[in-house]
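Record format v2
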Amino acid sequence: MVIAVLNSGDTAWMLISTALVILMTIPGLALFYSGLVKKENVLNTLFLSFVAYAVVSVIWFIYGYGAVFGSDIHGLIGIPTNPFFQGVIESHALYGTIPLGLYAVFEMAFAAITVALISGALVERMKFGAWMLFIPLWLTLVYLPVAHWVWGGGWLAQLGVLDFAGGIVVHINSGVAALALVLLLGPRQDKRLFPHQLTYSILGAGLLWIGWFGFNAGSALAAGQLATSAFIVTNTSAAVGLLVWMLIEYLRFGKVTLLGAASGAIAGLAAITPAAGFVNVMSAMVIGFGAAVVSYAAISYIKPRLGYDDALDVFGIHGFSGIWGVLAVGLFASPFINAAGTGLLYGNAHQLAVQALGIAVTFAYSFVVTLIIAKSIDLTIGLRVSSDDEQQGLDLATHDEIAYRI
Amino acid sequence: MKKIVALIRRTKLDVVKAALDEVGHHSMTVTEVKGRGKQKGITEIYRGREYQIDLLPKVELMMVVDDADVERVVDTIMHGARTGEIGDGKIFVLPVDDVIRIRTGERGSDAL
């Protein structure tokens, strides 16, 4: 019988990983988004991420962790048996070789960033109160179940769906939710993308890239070979995504842009997320390549054609690249990297089918439930700010603050 | 006294300032502005969308000088700011009713 013992190397790494993932939200994602909006909305945009992080932090340790990782009920949800995390830390319980509390707070950071990601689609026009209401409702009704299905031993996990660090749970989930929300919210009066401070976005992209090592390599839950493998392929996919987006722009415009490069990197990172602990370097290059292509297409062709105002391309980048990455697991998962996953390339066609199922289920569930939540908020307090407020800018209209004092 | 407002290229500001120093006209107010005229706009690309921008960054130089100095100042600015290409800018000359130095209360030409 193997008795679990706390490994300080694993624990140290996971503590750092957790901090890295939190850094991705505050301020990584916050900065990435806020640089892209008009200067009158920069503070509100930052605020969306910060407040999402705070609300999730609180709810997670009341019942969130338990709902995802507690005892399973019919594969649908977990039972939170320790509300307010009572007694858990005191019990010194372990999860593998790390403290259970550490596993819980690590997972909290994933929940937080998933919610924060959605904010990018709705910038410059959503009521702050509506966002604050949306956060706990969406976390509870969408994130917790989906995370349980995939990571908490729920029915998708039982069917064999593989998602190393959150292609389904984080990227597809948030991407699809963003789409649903903006369909109800409606487009901005000014839909043009004129970043007021692109340097913030690049800073944010850098923080996201670095933080992603905690996100993906940390999902190995140990400091060792698998974490190293995940670290390397994460970086590879990001780098290839960056370069390929540049290539696409060069072919299209004869010029390469920094925002394009950063977007390509994020697409590559989103795509490798579900695959980080299952694929080798060569596959990671293909994944990064595909991510840049599908996300570029989503933003440049699909979005304008269908007309939805996914302002900062949450569905375009996280949704599409997430879908590609989750499918890529079904193609490229190598049993030599991780015994837990074998893809089509190594003779197992079934995984691809299971991955597709996971995508379809999450897409449908997140879309429908998000619509219901958003509609409910709209019918009660309203989703959208007034036209005057939208024109004045949300920093002043919502918060009585201005970012740049001349 | 006249107010001289010159809209010039950003890249020409240092040249014009130095030339004005040489003819003894040191004081001025400089503002960064955006404008359009005959010059073609520029294209900006963000996430695969091209945007045509026709308001271009320029510099506005404002000076108030004695009537007798107007032609010399205008010539100096023109020489410094001209490239011969469309987009060199314009100079406006306007009448001024009075000038007051805040520190001393001097008025008129004494305040220039």
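The longest strand of chain B covers residues 56-65.
The beta strands of chain B are 2-8, 29-35, 42-46, 49-53, 56-65, 89-95.
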